[in-house]
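Re: the request from the purification team.
They wanted to know what the chain is likely to look like in 3D before they choose a buffer screen. I agreed to run a prediction and write the result into the notebook, where they can find it.
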Amino acid sequence: MTCKTCTGNVRLMRRSKDKDSNRFALSGKLADVCAALDALAAQEMRNTWRVAAH
């Protein structure tokens, strides 16, 4: 995952065995993972607002 707030490498992984397609794992340095989670949350909020506006 690449984002402006991430300063290092973060890996986003999904296991093909998992039945839940919304389940994933992030790995990397704690600060980088937290920044990636913040970026994902912000992206989700932008998408929610965009859908609500239409």
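For the purification team: The chain has a mean pLDDT of 79.
Please add any questions underneath this entry.
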